[in-house]
Amino acid sequence: MTVTVRLRFFASLREKLGEGEALSLPDGSTVADVREALRARGGVHAEALAPGRAVRSALNQTMSAESATLADGDELAFFPPVTGG
Fold first, then answer.
1. Alpha carbon distance 10, 2 (integer Å)
2. DSSP 3-state assignment of 27?
3. Domain extents for the chain?
4. Which Pfam family, just one, is annotated for this protein (predicted)?
5. What is the band of 58 on the pLDDT scale with cuts at 50, 70, 90?
6. Which of these, 18, 61, 68, 85, is most buried using a 10 Å CB contact count?
7. Residue 77's closest CA among 47, 57, 55, 48?
8. What pairing do the DSSP bridges indicate for beta strands 2-9 and 75-79?
């Protein structure tokens, strides 16, 4: 069984990776699994989402941990940390 999630990228990630896409993964996948699947593509995906890079995630518009489990139809957004001034 699989789940399909809608990915969205914001700020500098959007400039590098585009606006977003749909991605199908095995049932029980987590936010970390999505990030790893994207990194496995290599190129700009591997660079933008590399381990140690400051990237936040929001699952259905709520900040989420990398351990959060995905459900079919979820929206998962990735974005750099926001700074204020």
1. 26
2. coil
3. 2-6+12-79
4. ThiS
5. very high
6. 68
7. 57
8. parallel
Tokens representing 73 are: 């139809």
**Phi, psi angle pair for 19, to nearest 5°:** -70, -40
* 3 closest CA partner among 26, 33, 30: 26
The residue written with tokens 């001034």 in the block is: 85
The tokens describing 42, both together, are 């290599």
Query: For domain 2-6+12-79, which CATH number applies: 3.30.300.70, 3.60.120.10, 3.40.50.150, 3.10.20.30?
Result: 3.10.20.30
> Which distant-in-sequence residues (6+ apart) come within 8 Å of 8 by Cβ?
19, 20, 75, 76, 77, 78
pLDDT recorded at residue 81: 87
